[in-house]
């Protein structure tokens, strides 16, 4: 009997200890924030979970009275401190996630900025509607996507800015304004792609598209054939609605072999109902294991490449709805390692320079040490609506996934190599995407974004007290 009570006491004590430790660890973790890159842990003064407009207005009022700075966060997949600022207030917008209005007839939806693309897909899929433009994955918030002006696999609708009807903005002075191409239009191209520096995007009205049934068309080729293939088989074929390519990072075929997937409008759209159920991410363990192998060996990179290529080539002829194409798997890419992290880079190069660009890129990478895990390729049509436009021509966008260490030495090594790659990109009249770690130099930023000084000047004019700040602005704008 005595032993029983001793065990009960130990159990209660253990539970209490765990609870107190768990609370303490959560509080300790809460003092520090970091984005998905995990290279910029930052101590914040306040964390604010947003659920209403009144809350945001009150916290902005308090920040103005006390001189605090505000950083705005969604899913925090920007990797260059765009959602962080030391000793500032972090607004976590993920709880600000209501769908405010949906008009299937007008093909429009209005959502709060913390809504994810997955939330929208769940709402509109039963009505036979789809999102026009978003990232290839649907886990991000709409506000965060606007802040970086995303693009995706769709080759007909351009960047996200093209499908935005209007949005409401909470200005640094506390006023709320409507912004569109006709109302406060001067701010439209600054806030979209503005990295949270002009205020809080409250809600957004988006144009929608029809959900369509596509049929996969796959092909393998040498990189020198890709430009001709794209121009002849994709760009000028109106039945092709989406497109994705990958180029090998395996040693034996490094930056030479490619495979592509075109999403071709199915001839019989009546079949769409058969395929319209939204897919879930089910097979995680195997791709996660194989990606893990590729992190640590050339053999693993070769195995992953051959397996991926076979898988996608075997999907030739497969039917898939637009909504499901825009639900790429992401869980298998989650990576927890105390000493390593994975960063993204995205380089844009004019279509007509692709082959020469890849040749020059390979020449650099064959001499340098960079643990490159994957390169996907998408197309972005010429689009300079945003002040910080990355598509100054019809471009191929190359998204690089890189495994690297977190130490100062590792960061400096990656910076040295990536600055070389960026120079190659700029020499081919290309540019790079801004949501990632601040490896590019000031000179490279100005070459890629000739209007960057204008952008920062407009930020200071619109927000003279610099109420909204982040590490990206501190690094390049001050």
Descriptive notes:
There is one protein chain. This protein has 478 residues and is of the alpha+beta class. A hairpin with a 5-residue loop joins β9 and β10. The strands form four sheets. An eight-stranded antiparallel beta sheet has the order 15-12-14-13-17-18-16-19, sandwiched between helices. Strands 6, 7, 8, 9, 10 and 11 form a six-stranded antiparallel beta sheet that branches. The chain has 15 helices and 19 strands.
Our measurement of the CA-to-CA distance between the termini, rounded to an integer number of angstroms, reads 71 Å
Tell how many strands the DSSP assignment holds. Answer: 19
Strand order of the largest sheet: 15-12-14-13-17-18-16-19
**Unreliable residue stretches:** 1-29
The pLDDT mean sits at 91
Beta fraction of the residues?
Answer: 15-25%
Describe the structure concisely for a colleague.
The protein is an alpha+beta fold and 478 residues long.
Secondary-structure topology with pairs:
Layout lengths: L1 H30 E2 L8 E2 L2 E4 L3 H14 L3 E4 L15 E4 L6 E5 L4 E5 L4 H8 L4 E3 L10 H7 L15 E7 L5 E5 L7 H4 L8 E11 L2 E10 L3 H10 L4 E8 L9 E9 L6 H4 L9 H12 L1 H17 L4 E3 H4 L14 E11 L3 H12 L5 E10 L14 E11 L2 H20 L3 E2 L9 H7 L3 H11 L8 H6 L2
Parallel strand pairs: 3-5, 4-5
Antiparallel strand pairs: 1-2, 6-7, 7-11, 8-11, 9-10, 9-11, 12-14, 12-15, 13-14, 13-17, 16-18, 16-19, 17-18
Helix pairs in contact: 8-9, 11-12
């Amino acid at each position: 009997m005595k032993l029983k009570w001793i065990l009960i006491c130990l159990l209660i004590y253990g539970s209490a200890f765990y609870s107190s430790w768990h609370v303490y660890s959560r509080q300790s973790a809460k003092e520090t924030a970091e984005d998905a890159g995990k290279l910029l842990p930052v101590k914040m003064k306040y964390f604010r979970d947003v659920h209403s407009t009144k809350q945001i207005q009150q916290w902005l009022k308090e920040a103005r009275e006390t001189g605090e700075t505000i950083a705005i966060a969604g899913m925090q997949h920007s990797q260059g401190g765009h959602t962080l600022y030391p000793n500032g207030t972090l607004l976590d917008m993920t709880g600000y996630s209501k769908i405010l209005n949906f008009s299937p007839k007008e093909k429009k939806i209005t959502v709060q900025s913390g809504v994810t693309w997955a939330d929208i897909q769940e709402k509109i899929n039963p009505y036979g509607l789809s999102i026009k433009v978003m990232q290839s994955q649907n886990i991000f918030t709409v506000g965060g996507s606007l802040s970086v002006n995303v693009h995706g696999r769709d080759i007909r609708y351009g960047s996200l800015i093209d499908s935005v009807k209007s949005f409401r903005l909470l200005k640094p002075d506390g006023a709320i304004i409507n912004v569109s191409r006709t109302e406060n239009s001067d701010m439209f191209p600054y806030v979209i792609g503005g990295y949270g520096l002009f205020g809080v995007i409250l809600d957004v009205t988006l144009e929608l598209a029809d959900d369509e049934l596509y049929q996969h068309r796959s092909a393998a080729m040498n990189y020198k054939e890709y430009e001709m293939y794209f121009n002849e088989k994709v760009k000028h074929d109106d039945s092709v609605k989406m497109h994705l390519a990958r180029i090998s990072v395996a040693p034996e075929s490094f930056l030479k072999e490619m495979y592509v997937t075109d999403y071709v409008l199915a001839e019989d759209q009546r079949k769409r109902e058969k395929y319209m159920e939204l897919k879930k991410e089910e097979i995680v363990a195997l791709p996660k294991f194989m990606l893990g192998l590729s992190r640590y060996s050339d053999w693993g990179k070769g195995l992953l490449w051959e397996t991926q290529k076979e898988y996608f080539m075997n999907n030739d002829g497969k039917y898939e709805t637009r909504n499901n194409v825009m639900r790429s798997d992401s869980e298998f890419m989650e990576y927890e390692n105390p000493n390593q992290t994975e960063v993204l880079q995205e380089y844009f190069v004019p279509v007509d320079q692709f082959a020469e660009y890849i040749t020059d890129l390979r020449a650099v990478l064959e001499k340098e040490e960079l643990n490159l895990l994957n390169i996907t390729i998408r197309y972005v049509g010429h689009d300079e609506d945003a002040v910080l436009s990355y598509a100054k021509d019809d471009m191929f966008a190359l998204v690089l996934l890189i495994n690297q260490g977190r130490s100062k030495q590792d960061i400096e090594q990656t910076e040295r190599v990536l600055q070389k790659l960026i120079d190659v990109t700029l020499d081919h009249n290309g540019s790079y995407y801004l949501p990632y770690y601040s490896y590019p130099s000031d000179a490279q930023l100005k070459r890629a974004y000739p209007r960057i000084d204008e952008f920062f000047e407009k930020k200071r004019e619109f927000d003279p007290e610099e109420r909204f700040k982040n590490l990206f602005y501190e690094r390049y704008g001050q």
